[in-house]
């Protein structure tokens, strides 16, 4: 791809090869989202589906040459939210105006708004990112947002 620099193509090749579980220079489209996230992108489910991502393993596979235009396109997308956007969205639930919200309300938001998560996903993200609730059931939402945006391996982002 003309818009990808050689180091980006090389990094994409390395990550693509990691997701080539069969050693056939092919990656299952069910792994498209994980592959893109491993490349420090934050695609939405809609972006993954638009790129051809599937829900079932074995439906179709892609070659590296087929992956590069998808990677290039999603790399250009600006649809992902910024820290300030998330802060503004959660301030609505900050009834005490002290940077906290009820953990239950946050779980409800994750279950019902935007790209809805299921119960196990909400439990996982709350456990990993929300921190300790206070005695009244409140959490600091700024810390939650920072933890989510740091990704699954924040120590590698430094």
Task: Give a topology summary.
Blueprint: H1 6-18, E1 27-28, H2 32-38, H3 45-50, E2 61-62, H4 64-76, H5 83-91, E3 100-102, H6 103-112, H7 119-129, E4 138-140, H8 141-150
Antiparallel strand pairs: 1-2, 3-4
Helix pairs in contact: 1-4, 5-8, 6-7, 7-8
How would you explain this protein's 3D organization?
There is one protein chain. This protein is about 50% helix and about 5% strand. It has about 160 residues and is mainly alpha-helical. The longest helix has 13 residues, at about 5-20. The protein starts with 5 loop residues before the first helix and ends in an 8-residue tail after the last helix.
Low-confidence stretches: none
Number of strands: 4
Give me the Rg, rounded: 18 Å
Percent in strands: 5-15%
Report how far the terminal alpha carbons are from each other.
Answer: 28 Å
Q: Largest sheet, described in full?
A: 2 strands, antiparallel
Strand order of the largest sheet: 1-2
Q: What sort of overall outline do the alpha carbons produce when their principal axes are compared?
A: elongated
Average the pLDDT over all residues and give the rounded result.
Answer: 88
Share of helix, binned: 40-55%
- Which class do the helix and strand fractions yield? mainly alpha
- The SSE string, one letter per element, is HEHHEHHEHHEH
Count the helices. How many?
8
């Amino acid at each position: 791809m003309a818009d990808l620099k050689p180091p980006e193509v090389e990094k994409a090749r390395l990550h693509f090869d990691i997701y080539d579980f069969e050693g056939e220079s092919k990656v299952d489209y069910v792994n498209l989202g994980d592959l893109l996230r491993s490349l420090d992108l934050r695609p939405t489910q809609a972006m993954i589906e638009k790129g051809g991502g599937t829900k079932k393993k074995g439906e179709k596979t892609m070659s590296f040459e087929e992956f590069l235009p998808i990677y290039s396109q999603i790399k250009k997308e600006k649809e992902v939210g910024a820290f300030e956007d998330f802060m503004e969205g959660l301030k609505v639930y900050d009834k005490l105006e002290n940077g906290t919200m009820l953990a239950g309300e946050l779980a409800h938001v994750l279950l019902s708004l935007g790209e809805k998560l299921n119960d196990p996903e909400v439990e996982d993200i709350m456990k990993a990112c929300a921190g300790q609730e206070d005695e009244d059931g409140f959490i600091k939402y700024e810390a939650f947002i920072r933890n989510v945006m740091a990704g699954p391996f924040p120590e590698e982002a430094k």
